[in-house]
Amino acid sequence: MVNIHVRREDNGEWVRGLAIPLEDIQRFSLRPLKWLRFVAFAVLGAKGDLFDAFGAGRNIVNYDTVSVTDADGYYFFPDGNSSCLQPSFTDKVHSNRTLPSRRSQGLADKITASTVSTISTSRHHDFRHDVAKRDNKRCVIKGTTGKECHAAHIIPHSKGNRYIRLVISDRRSLYEDQQVDLLSDLNINSPENGMFLSTELHSRFGRGASAFLKTPNFALKPEDIPWVEPGKIPASRTTIQHFESWDPEDQYPVLQGNVRVDWTVVGAPLSILLDYTYGVAVIQRWATADILNLLEKHHEIHYKIQPDDNDVLDDDPADPEYVPSETVYHCGIHQTRTEAAQCRAIDTAIAFSMFIKGYPPGTTIDMLLQKQEEEAEMRSRQVAREKVQGWLETTGSGSSPFVTVLNSLAVLPINFLKLVTCYNNSAPSKPNLMSHLFQGWLR
């Protein structure tokens, strides 16, 4: 086994978090240490480096090496604060579930002063239509069509909008070079949270037996992943990797292959979500008994994020409004089991991350949401103040370009916006009164 050690933020203790068989590492990447670095990134939500020791004299590993021994151990040092697989309290795995009362919509709807969105859940059948259309109505790996395929959620549908927005808010800083303009409008039924998969691959993805690795990424290049298909390695690829071997009796096992459609287009599955679920599969498969035992002792109460689902007659069996039909009943059983397995895997991963992050037992998801909502509001108001101050500095010349500014200041009451807009239309040459209004609001 190759061991990955991670450090707890509350007391600095190093914990053997992952134990990964050498043969699996060699299967997944031609540069094993690069892959291990990505694994740590996906699990912890932080960029950083692997070291050969944790004390004085430690050295960063040589990522280009192709040799790793079975007895090796590595220590992951994050570049900054980690955002471990969503540090939010959720259900304790295999325990009775205590649910908090329903609260407001999720945090970070106001990413900036110019962005305020109230996101409602799309109907689930629209999700299937949009995902199938983007993926050419074929399984993205096998190429099969029709009723044998599902529009599979990357983050499970039953987790709801609040959960996916919390994941995105937590990790978006790691993906500043891509997709930022899309993230604030994403919801659980956005096509970016889905992919068209055959029944068997949906089942494997749901229980963490298979996951999708998108390259290039923080640590890996496309050529670092084994290439089993004819032709030149593309500049961007998404590869299905199997954490669990196929049934020996299966006549048609799916090899480690690439997605058959173009996932570089707008509306394709987001790296932030694919990487997140890759980390979930890693935790589910290779979390050590050491850390699982510590989790059992350390956390006694966990809460989950209540779904905020407004769907009607949903075709997701995990949805309370699901109405099964006789023609898809068997498929419905499969989907129910898949959804439950995927949610359990995410719950395990979250418990792991909260332990490493150092959250005290008793912290609830409502506490975390309230804190992050307050921080998002403070950031929004600060941006708004800076914009208004910039406008005030231009009013000395008599020009008054404040309508554009006001329209972007979503934190201001709508009635105030109407008032100042009307004033500007009727008296554009009188900026002094508006300056006084803004100065009063700034205070």
Walk me through this protein's architecture:
The chain is globular, with a radius of gyration of 24 Å. Helix 6 (about 200-205) packs parallel to helix 9, helix 7 crosses helix 9 and helix 11 (about 400-410) packs antiparallel against helix 12. It has 3 domains: about 1-80, Ubiquitin-like (UB roll); about 125-360, no CATH class; about 380-440, no CATH class. A 4-stranded mixed beta sheet has the order 2-1-4-3. Strands 5-6 form a two-stranded antiparallel sheet. Strands 7-8 form a two-stranded antiparallel sheet. The longest helix is centred in the last third of the chain and has 29 residues, at about 330-355. The protein has helices at about 20-30, 30-45, 125-135, 160-170, 180-185, 200-205, 270-285, 290-300, 330-355, 365-390, 400-410, 415-425, 430-440, and strands at about 1-5, 15-20, 50, 75-80, 150-155, 195-200, 210-215, 235-240. About 40% of the residues lie in helices and about 10% in strands. The model is unreliable at about 85-120, about 300-315 and about 315-335 (pLDDT under 50). The protein is α+β, with helices and mostly antiparallel strands and about 450 residues long.
Shape: globular
Average per-residue pLDDT, rounded, comes to: 72
User: Helix-strand pattern, N to C?
Assistant: EEHHEEHEHHEHEEHHHHHHH
Strand content: 5-15%
Domain HNH nuclease: 139-212
InterPro entries: HNH_nuc
Protein name: HNH nuclease domain-containing protein
Pfam family, one: HNH_2
Fold blueprint:
Elements: E1 2-7, E2 14-20, H1 22-28, H2 32-44, E3 48-51, E4 73-78, H3 124-134, E5 149-153, H4 160-171, H5 180-183, E6 194-198, H6 199-206, E7 210-215, E8 237-242, H7 271-286, H8 289-298, H9 329-357, H10 365-392, H11 402-408, H12 414-426, H13 431-442
Parallel strand pairs: 1-4
Antiparallel strand pairs: 1-2, 3-4, 5-6, 7-8
